[in-house]
What we know:
Strand 15 (315-317), helix 13 (325-330) and strand 16 (338-341) form a beta-alpha-beta unit. Helix 7 (142-156) crosses helix 8 and helix 20 packs antiparallel against helix 21. The protein is 46% helix and 14% strand. The protein is built from 23 helices and 22 strands. The strands form seven sheets. Strands 12, 13, 14, 15, 16, 17, 18 and 19 form an eight-stranded mixed β-sheet that branches. The chain has 628 residues and is of the alpha/beta class.
Amino acid sequence: xxxxxxxxxxxxxxxxxxxxxxxxxxxxxxxxxxxxxxxxxxxxxxxxxxxxxxxxxxxxxxxxxxxxxxxxxxxxxxxxxxxxxxxxxxxxxxxxxxxxxxxxxxxxxxxxxxxxxxxxxxxxxxxxxxxxxxxxxxxxxxxxxxxxxxxxxxxxxxxxxxxxxxxxxxxxxxxxxxxxxxxxxxxxxxxxxxxxxxxxxxxxxxxxxxxxxxxxxxxxxxxxxxxxxxxxxxxxxxxxxxxxxxxxxxxxxxxxxxxxxxxxxxxxxxxxxxxxxxxxxxxxxxxxxxxxxxxxxxxxxxxxxxxxxxxxxxxxxxxxxxxxxxxxxxxxxxxxxxxxxxxxxxxxxxxxxxxxxxxxxxxxxxxxxxxxxxxxxxxxxxxxxxxxxxxxxxxxxxxxxxxxxxxxxxxxxxxxxxxxxxxxxxxxxxxxxxxxxxxxxxxxxxxxxxxxxxxxxxxxxxxxxxxxxxxxxxxxxxxxxxxxxxxxxxxxxxxxxxxxxxxxxxxxxxxxxxxxxxxxxxxxxxxxxxxxxxxxxxxxxxxxxxxxxxxxxxxxxxxxxxxxxxxxxxxxxxxxxxxxxxxxxxxxxxxxxxxxxxxxxxxxxxxxxxxxxxxxxxxxxxxxxxxx
Length: 628
């Protein structure tokens, strides 16, 4: 788009994960700036820890135009943006990892239906206690219990090549909604160190949450907000609820002639994958290009290996080789090409029929265009539609088909009580309408669960965003004015007069600003930690027929009021005792040191993530209905 902008006299820039602060400022200063929502969000969060105006990067928000709007504003909104400060890493010890690795599922530990939480059974607790020779639940062993729980989460719920990769001796997280590596992101609460310990890697630093912002909170800062996507209609209600945005459908440039075949349903994942490989091999023989869409890295590598064993040469595109995406997609439409990919496969771009060889286009069109094969339903039908949308673009021919199983993870997780659907066919194929309904119903349950998570996340974060806005306004005033100096001069007049004669008013003003900003940021981090603990237990209020959300708000409002009062009190106490010389306030000498490093976290924010929480939420449903 650069040449077009230049022709119109409009400046344009872009920010990437590797951009320096100066490059980011230059990009933001352009008339149009491109950047991912996470990069923009993390710039905002980093600015909220700045102690000098010159260190600020993000501009005043004005207009935001979101590409792939439903993916960013709905799917990625499930993962709040979090910035953390450094604390020495302390993952589970090798001994604890060995104990946890020997525990048996269903006997020593159980995970909830959606595999977001895992816990020890009584037998599991006894096994751990016997091996470690201690009372696991004694107060003095709290740190050990925490390490066991974190190690259990890392070993049971986080799978290599599904949730993360090991690359260059480090753990790299995979962004679930994009299928790409989430650069510079980590898990919180010791989980990163636990996975590193599980994989036998050097432990990185751990950290505490300094600040957080939701995608809704970030985009809500903009005066004007709009977006585009090919699958907005299915997300219209959520876009209206969470962003107050309507959806308008733009007519296609050319009529779509793509053929979408009904799902091919099988009794087991093994039969499903065998049929998928046979289908791809048959299609490949006709020189029609094939794109196989998989749900994670492990599945992409398993299917590609099966294809190669069947004599089909294919290219794999996943988080392990994301740097090669452009080159792979450029040739994905070539005659006879077979690409096995995760969700990252060229979304938002056209796969050109014939690839880079324009002369081959007619032959590929005659062969039927691009054939997209799905290796299973995703948790959202919109993701299925995005995969289908790789074929038949701009009036090109194409066809799509999904291969599913009534024992796929989406069915087992979302409809665990569904009765088995047997097959009498030797290849395990199921042709009854009941089999199709099982898979479709499981996907609808998954979509409803995701919407509930999104709704709860926003409801619980709405007041937090309001409080953050109030505190941010105060922080901005402290950063740009001499308010901190005025406040401390009034609170500590004698100390102010003494130090002013020694070091001068300008040094004292900067010292006052540094002291007050430190305590504001410290208290906000403590407030977030309090709210996290509060939210993890607040669902229990439902057992006494109280509305957890109302009780959450009732507890957090006085806590924030106290925070506002404590900023001035703590700043005055520090000002009275801290050493102030020509170099400013020696906060480190008072034990008030800012983190030496910051990074971003990837978390799944679900206020009702566990079975107990959902049960409590269900109990509170009558009171919520009365409240409405």
